[in-house]
Amino acid sequence: MNFGFLTPENMALLTDLYELTMADSYYRAGINDFTTFDLFVRELPENRNFLVSCGLEQILYYLENIRFSKDAIEYLRSLKIFSEEFLGYLKDFRFGGEVWAIPEGEIYFNQEPVIRVTARRIEAQIIETFLLNIFNFQSMIASKSARVVLTAKDKSVVDFSARRDHSTDASIKTARASFIAGCVGTSNVLAGRLYGIPVIGTMAHSYVMSFPNELESFRTFAEHFPENTVLLIDTYDVIEGAKNAIIVAKEMEKRGYRLRGVRIDSGDLAELSKKVRKMLDEENLNYVRIVLSGDLNEYKIEELLEKGAKADVFGVGTEMGVSKDAPSLGGVYKLVEDKGGPKIKLSTGKITLPGKKQVWRVVKDGIMIEDIICLEDEPPPSKDAYPLLVKVMDRGKVIIDYPSISKIREFCISNYSKLPEEAKKIRGEKWDYPVKVSNKLRRMTEKLEKMIHYHQ
After folding, report:
1. What is the pLDDT of residue 345?
2. 86: Cα within 13 Å, side-chain hemisphere
3. Architecture of 11-141+326-455 per CATH?
4. pTM over 0.90
5. Would you tell me how many other CB atoms lie within 10 Å of the CB of residue 133?
6. For residues 372 and 419, what is the distance between their CA atoms, to the nearest angstrom?
7. Own/partner pairs, 170-173, CB within 8 angstroms, 24+ separation
8. Is there a contact between 94 and 67 (Cβ–Cβ < 8 Å)?
9. Pseudo-torsion of CA 117, 118, 121, 127, nearest 10°?
10. φ/ψ of residue 436, rounded to 5
11. By C-alpha distance, which of 92, 96, 86 is closest to 21?
């Protein structure tokens, strides 16, 4: 399991200051009972019909390995905020709780607990920021990537976003999340190494411009990488570039190789791709794939396919890597139960559902019908329902055999087939999937609300 740049030695400090000040206050007040927190998204972004769970592997790694090193504690001491008693407690800090979660690659919706943590209050509090940081980002990217992949239909999508992503670590997590959502690979070499994602690349315009002419640049590249030659044909003129690519393809055939593809990165992609496809086919080069790129997103891909673009692969960068149309996800982490019983927040527009819960999904004829949020001890709401939350950690130890990233990807793609067709649309009126609350949970919520108002 690889985590990227963050190491066990410093990841304990990736938290908001108030998590630690609250924890210190709890410690000094002797309040460290068992609590349960839910991580969930209040509302779907304006242009999202569904979300994809992503980031659990890194969360579990963090929970198993979080430690406050001597240097970390010295830094906290230098802030002159924390009690020595609390700093002493942190020397032996370990997460020893229980975690239930929706598996990575699963579809989920607003208000549904995606991760449920039961642990000592201090442990559960300190981890809040990190869990939200990891889950919100990767789930946001996976959800955006899912839209791109679904819109591309049978065409492949490659993550080209590294140079535009918001920081180095974000680019690695973007490659991971987009691959899980269905991309076939990434241009990010470090992500390939860390996560075992196929790495894919072509060439830049600067390479073509570094030679006396385009044909010579193509010949040189094909000589050096005969097994992996994809030629960028729009540096000067796409049609002339295609002609030069055909010459090189024929030369490669004589040497026993095949040109893998050509890439078009500018201009009228639909019309140019059709012309290039015709030119290639006329030369019996039907095996040469066409890669289209250039500020693509799901909307542009849909338009290209509607216009009959001849694409085999879409290289998608900025728009997917920063989820440009929905660049943040409102995931929250809220207390729902402690030794005093179920807890509820009543802030305007931010009311929470109390108690330990399970989410049941009803599927009929292979299609998702509705989700029902129930209390943990409630029976399945119907014979067609199955639970989404799975126990993944007990007493601070991971208790599942974590699947490979390829298996997570397969699982995610299989879940797309369960989505109603309305959920896959990227234009038109927003579609709302039915997420219901069980009668028992609703009664508990109403009871707690009345009780709190009575005692105010």
Report:
1. 87
2. 23
3. Alpha-Beta Barrel (3.20)
4. yes
5. 18
6. 16
7. 170/137, 170/321, 171/321, 172/4, 172/5, 173/4, 173/55, 173/58, 173/134, 173/137, 173/138, 173/141
8. yes
9. -20
10. -110, 165
11. 86
- Whole-Å CA distances, 263 to 181, 229, 240, 291, 438: 23, 11, 13, 4, 52
Q: Which ranges of 49-127 would DSSP assign to H, the alpha helix?
A: 56-65, 70-78, 84-91, 121-126
The answer to whether residue 1 scores a pLDDT higher than 80 is no
103-130 pLDDT, tens digit each: 999 999 999 999 999 999 999 999 999 9
Whole-number Å distance between alpha carbons of 110 and 105: 16
Question: What CA–CA distances, in Å, run from 132 to 59, 114, 180?
Answer: 9, 11, 19
For 196, other C-beta atoms within 10 Å of its C-beta total: 13
CA angle 145, 146, 148 (to 5 degrees): 65
Beta carbons of 241 and 233 less than 8 angstroms apart: yes
| Extents of the domains making up the chain | 11-141+326-455, 142-321
- Work out the burial of residue 280: count CB atoms within 10 Å of its CB; fewer than 13 is exposed, 13-18 middle, 19 or more buried: buried
Selection from 397, 390, 403 nearest residue 64 by Cα = 397
- Distance from first CA to last CA of the chain, Å, rounded? 49
Residue 3 to residues 20, 246, 251, Cα–Cα distance (Å): 23, 43, 44
Number of alpha helices (DSSP H) and beta strands (DSSP E) in the chain? 17, 19
375-414 burial, b for 16+ CB within 10 Å, e for fewer? Answer: beebeebeeebeebbeebbeebebeeebeebeebbeebbe
Q: DSSP letters of 22-33? A: HHHHHHHHT---
By the 8 A CB rule, do 130 and 6 touch? no
Task: Write down the pLDDT at residue 351.
Answer: 81
pLDDT surpassing 90 at residue 85: yes
Nearest to 110 by CA among 446, 435, 447, 407: 435
Q: Which tokens hold the place of 208?
A: 């073509």
Beta strands 331-338 and 185-186 are: unpaired
For 414-441, write each residue's pLDDT tens digit.
999 999 999 999 998 889 999 999 999 9
Q: How many CB atoms lie within 10 A of CB 291?
A: 25
Joined together, the tokens standing for residue 85 give 């008693």
Task: Dump pLDDT digits (tens) for 209-250.
Answer: 999 999 999 999 999 999 999 999 999 999 999 999 999 999
CATH level 3 topology of 142-321: TIM Barrel (3.20.20)
State pLDDT tens for residues 314-355.
Answer: 999 999 999 999 999 999 999 999 999 999 888 877 789 999
